[in-house]
Amino acid sequence: MEILSIIPARGGSKGIPKKNMALLCGQPLIKYTFDAAKKSRLITRIILSTDDKDFAEYGRENGIEALMRPEELAGDRTPMKDVINYHLDALEKSGYKCDILILLQPTSPLRTEKHIDQALQGLIDEREADATVSVVDVPHEYLPQKLMELKEDGSLKFFRSDGEKYTTRQELPHLYARNGAAVYAVYTESYRKTGSLYGTRCIPYFMKPEESVDVDGYFDLFLAECIMRDFPEWKEERFT
What we know:
Elements: E1 3-8, E2 23-24, E3 27-28, H1 29-39, E4 45-50, H2 53-61, E5 65-68, H3 80-93, E6 100-103, H4 113-125, E7 131-137, E8 148-150, E9 156-158, E10 176-178, E11 184-187, H5 188-194, E12 202-206, H6 218-230, H7 232-239
Parallel strand pairs: 1-4, 1-6, 4-5, 7-12
Antiparallel strand pairs: 2-3, 6-11, 7-10, 7-11, 8-9
């Protein structure tokens, strides 16, 4: 089975300038995704999609095939599907086709090859599914039923009209959030038909909070470094 990994890394970043090259435990942030993709047992081809020549050069130095994308596909509001479609179209014109597409964003440095392969294997084994996405438990205090909004008069009101009735955790639903997402995987045929990374039947790949840091700003970078250095459960998961 041909499984293509696309690692998207545009040069512009507002939160952290050149974020994908920001140092994390002495290594550029993006290198953790490079290493995880290369160590995967199931991924058969890896491409780096970028508009930044420095990123492309660093990718090639690390054995990653770097493909440049046009400037109009490098804005902070550019839909990811436009980037994916651009590369799939170009690859197909060259005669290459993949069975599964997996999107690995560099902002998830705690996602390892183990997570990648487990998510892919789960998708392959679940014959009724055509996509999978990594998710993490939503803490109960952040569920919609617990949220409040600040009104113009300065008062707090429940975001949901029935919010006040939920007084115990046991009454609340169990919800999940995409953790970046660290992993999006979809059968290419389904993606082409639906235009969606979620296909027609998407199954979850569950990840722990300590594996789910999505680096957007400096605090996220600090948190990821603390976990890598000092969190024994993550180290045990990573190296066993």
